[in-house]
């Protein structure tokens, strides 16, 4: 009801609901007055099927009438207690949001201590705990697989969490910071500034940084542009800057967030990129994030070796 722009719609709904209840009650009352005296011949409605199957005007059965009255009474009580009459919130002031928050509070009170017990432990120690690992895995499968995949290898635009190529760093505490506060990675668009040819030159130079097939002549020209503008984020050597989340362009495995083909790199330089990693601190709480961060760290490290 909060979405209504005027009181008219709330009043209109009240009129429809109340009118429906009144109309049904009157109909039920009038029909309950119809009776058949002993020995009285019941009239037919003139409808005949299959030659001798006729429709009689018999009164409604008493049990059916009682059920109808009970249903109407239930409806009146329900609308008095719960929302249903326009903007009237009901005597219990129930809302789906309120029930959701209440259920979450109950769940937090029950399960929060199970996660908070690990806050006193180092993340590497948590990662080596089999019980904590299982808890972290369930959290990952619930909240993270939508972007990073069930195998944590990511997809186009979503980082691979099982290798050692991290945009913001792969230390346990850094991973926890990422999950707690989220990240906002932005690559500015240079298409208008560079022009089509210069974009291709820079793209070929970027390809050369990871020893991929490229046009040497274009790469030589693109080197000048890269070292004049792109080095600000990616560094002169193209190895990136984890403080900014700027990718390492020299990675030997060719691990690219959006793909490492010439076409894709040209698209990235021309249009830029804008990525958002949501913050989970308020939703999950630090205890769950602590366990989840330990699990994510373990995906690319051996927890037992770190003990």
Automatic annotation (TrEMBL):
<feature type="binding site" description="axial binding residue">
    <location>
        <position position="277"/>
    </location>
    <ligand>
        <name>heme c 1</name>
    </ligand>
</feature>
<comment type="similarity">
    <text>Belongs to the CcoP / FixP family.</text>
</comment>
<keyword id="KW-0679">Respiratory chain</keyword>
<dbReference type="GO" id="GO:0005886">
    <property type="term" value="C:plasma membrane"/>
</dbReference>
<keyword id="KW-0813">Transport</keyword>
<dbReference type="InterPro" id="IPR036909">
    <property type="entry name" value="Cyt_c-like_dom_sf"/>
</dbReference>
<feature type="binding site" description="axial binding residue">
    <location>
        <position position="187"/>
    </location>
    <ligand>
        <name>heme c 2</name>
    </ligand>
</feature>
<keyword id="KW-1133">Transmembrane helix</keyword>
<dbReference type="GO" id="GO:0020037">
    <property type="term" value="F:heme binding"/>
</dbReference>
<keyword id="KW-0406">Ion transport</keyword>
<feature type="binding site" description="covalent">
    <location>
        <position position="147"/>
    </location>
    <ligand>
        <name>heme c 1</name>
    </ligand>
</feature>
<keyword id="KW-0349">Heme</keyword>
<keyword id="KW-0249">Electron transport</keyword>
<dbReference type="GO" id="GO:0009055">
    <property type="term" value="F:electron transfer activity"/>
</dbReference>
<comment type="subunit">
    <text>Component of the cbb3-type cytochrome c oxidase.</text>
</comment>
<feature type="binding site" description="covalent">
    <location>
        <position position="230"/>
    </location>
    <ligand>
        <name>heme c 2</name>
    </ligand>
</feature>
<dbReference type="Pfam" id="PF13442">
    <property type="entry name" value="Cytochrome_CBB3"/>
</dbReference>
<dbReference type="InterPro" id="IPR050597">
    <property type="entry name" value="Cytochrome_c_Oxidase_Subunit"/>
</dbReference>
<comment type="pathway">
    <text>Energy metabolism; oxidative phosphorylation.</text>
</comment>
<keyword id="KW-0677">Repeat</keyword>
<protein>
    <recommendedName>
        <fullName>Cbb3-type cytochrome c oxidase subunit</fullName>
    </recommendedName>
</protein>
<keyword id="KW-0812">Transmembrane</keyword>
<feature type="binding site" description="axial binding residue">
    <location>
        <position position="148"/>
    </location>
    <ligand>
        <name>heme c 1</name>
    </ligand>
</feature>
<feature type="domain" description="Cytochrome c">
    <location>
        <begin position="131"/>
        <end position="210"/>
    </location>
</feature>
<dbReference type="InterPro" id="IPR008168">
    <property type="entry name" value="Cyt_C_IC"/>
</dbReference>
<dbReference type="InterPro" id="IPR004678">
    <property type="entry name" value="Cyt_c_oxidase_cbb3_su3"/>
</dbReference>
<dbReference type="Pfam" id="PF14715">
    <property type="entry name" value="FixP_N"/>
</dbReference>
<feature type="domain" description="Cytochrome c">
    <location>
        <begin position="217"/>
        <end position="300"/>
    </location>
</feature>
<dbReference type="GO" id="GO:1902600">
    <property type="term" value="P:proton transmembrane transport"/>
</dbReference>
<dbReference type="GO" id="GO:0016491">
    <property type="term" value="F:oxidoreductase activity"/>
</dbReference>
<keyword id="KW-0479">Metal-binding</keyword>
<feature type="transmembrane region" description="Helical">
    <location>
        <begin position="62"/>
        <end position="82"/>
    </location>
</feature>
<keyword id="KW-0408">Iron</keyword>
<dbReference type="GO" id="GO:0005506">
    <property type="term" value="F:iron ion binding"/>
</dbReference>
<keyword id="KW-1003">Cell membrane</keyword>
<keyword id="KW-0560">Oxidoreductase</keyword>
<feature type="transmembrane region" description="Helical">
    <location>
        <begin position="9"/>
        <end position="29"/>
    </location>
</feature>
<keyword id="KW-0472">Membrane</keyword>
<dbReference type="InterPro" id="IPR038414">
    <property type="entry name" value="CcoP_N_sf"/>
</dbReference>
<keyword id="KW-0375">Hydrogen ion transport</keyword>
<dbReference type="InterPro" id="IPR032858">
    <property type="entry name" value="CcoP_N"/>
</dbReference>
<feature type="binding site" description="axial binding residue">
    <location>
        <position position="234"/>
    </location>
    <ligand>
        <name>heme c 2</name>
    </ligand>
</feature>
